[in-house]
Amino acid sequence: MDVTIYHNPACGTSRNTLALIRHAGIEPTVIEYLKTPPSRKELAQMIRDAGISVREAIRENGTPYQELGLDNPALSDDQLLAAMLEHPILINRPFVITPIGTRLARPSEAVLDILPADAFKGPFVKEDGEAVLDAEGRRIG
Question: The CATH number of the domain where 133 resides is what?
Answer without folding.
Answer: 3.40.30.10
